[in-house]
What we know:
Blueprint: E1 3-7, H1 13-30, H2 45-54, E2 56-62, E3 65-76, E4 79-87, H3 96-107, E5 113-119, H4 123-131, E6 135-142, E7 145-153
Helix pairs in contact: 1-2
Amino acid sequence: MMLEFQPAALADAPALVLAQVAAFHHDSVLYPGVEVGGPPGYESVEVMQAKIMRDDAFSFWLDGQIVGGMVIYDQGSGHYHLDVIFIHPDYHNQGIGSQALRFLDATYPAARLWTLNTPAWAIRNQHFYEKFGYVKVSESEWEGFPLFDYERYVQRPD
């Protein structure tokens, strides 16, 4: 298994959207009562292309194919926000998410604060982020989508 994290190219957008849609739709299997869907724009190649052009977007490549991705917002002053991270369900439980978070730490050495939001019902996500030192700090809602807000302060040797 050869996993690579690469800056996303516009040509990656259709494959990224396929993986993202599969990941969000899989939540309805993992969490009974959760409807099929995702955040606004999650099914749109155009929205993904806009994120690739505007933000820091990465494609997860495994053995020559895209299996997931993530988008990061630079909030300034060492604050980065993980907008979205997704892995196609066929590749869950293989350590890809863990490798992705370690990749972020290595790629953003100036980061002092990481923030993210995850669906309030996504217990699996919450455990995953907490395993990496994220702490739930509040609850919010985005366009009708209930979220838990997390943050992680990074201690860097000077």
